[in-house]
Amino acid sequence: MMSFFRTRRQEPPSMTLEGMLGPNGRLDEARGMNVNAPDALCVAADGRLLFSDGSSVMALTAWGGEPELFAGFDTPVTALCQGFGGFVAVGLAGGILAVLDDTGRRTENWSLPAGQPASIVDCAFTSDGHLLLVDCGYQSSENLLAMAAWDEEARGRLLALSRTGELRVMAAGLHCPMGICLDPDGAPLVSLLERAMIVDAGGKPRQAGYPGYLGRPRRTGAGYAIACWSRRDPLIEFLKTEQTFVEKMKATIEPRHWIGPRIKPEFSHDFPIELGATRLFGEVKPWAPSFSYGLVIETDETLMPIGSMQSRANGHRHGICDVAVWNGELVAVSKGSGEILNLGSRA
Predict the structure, then answer these.
(1) Beta 167-174 vs 320-326: how paired, if at all?
(2) Which residues contact 62 (CB under 8 A, 6 or more apart)?
């Protein structure tokens, strides 16, 4: 029989979707552009929006225009960033890195030793010419979202790669790092998906307790915008007290069927379901518990939330994994709906 008084492995996040983070439908109301397989985006030196579409990097001159191919690869794109001189760094499945010039041609700089990172999920150029790489520690073929909540091993790293190819480990033992951006002083800020916190280059928390599974953080005019794969789910937090149940689930069921956050609000007979999320009178209620959710958290300079954009349980713009400010407007990637969203102007 399950005990209701077992010790948690960690404290649950302290913030809730209330107050400044109160429910809204701003993601559902945003303009959208269909993309087959979006994941990452950044703004190029010439002002174009670069975004990944499977194994391609596309360039968009203006919202509503027709995207053009910027670069193509043999494996899916997993990270994008732009730096000085117009260089564009592209993370690829399998821990591969490509650095392109402003025309999309591959350069020989920042050559990464083979087999070093398990998977590059985000990157950022620094002012001194280094390229910072976020290695989540999971292979591209692994179901990261399903596994992170039940994996105690902190295998993620923050790496610094010089232009000559020298690789340095800035931080190790990070639990599922998913994104990076630089603060106004140029210091790295790294998001941890399951730990719901932003840490510095040494792994020290800068802000914690977010009510979501964190994706990539980005600078905005007012502070930061943090993409969230989903909101925190009370059932998952509760099951962290039930080690016997979790061990049996991990031993007998494939990860894709584990209880965990999901990208899409899809239903299947072999997926776990929360009773409160069953359809009532033919529809899912917006306040229903759900394993997928759309959430972007806006913060001030101290990383304290000041607002949010959401697609609730009955929406479909879920699995938000990246954001960027482009031409004064905030754009975001919705993996759940396969769209780039335009969320309007931001300071």
Answers:
(1) unpaired
(2) 327
Q: How many CB atoms lie within 10 A of CB 154?
A: 17
Statement: 19-343 belongs to CATH 2.120.10.30: yes
DSSP 8-state code for residue 8: P
Per-residue pLDDT tens over the stretch 290-343 = 889 999 999 999 999 999 999 999 999 999 999 999 999 999 999 999 999 999
Could you give the CA distance from residue 267 to residue 8 in angstroms, rounded to a whole number?
30
Cα gap 27→309, rounded to integer Å:
6
Q: Which of 115, 274, 296 is nearest to 220 (CA)?
A: 296
* pTM for the model: 0.93
Structure tokens at 201: 């280059």
Residues in CB range of 330: below 8 A, 6 or more apart: 220, 225, 296, 323, 324, 342, 343, 344, 345, 346
Burial of 285 (0-12, 13-18, 19+ CB in 10 A): middle
Backbone angles phi, psi at 249, to 5 degrees: -60, -45
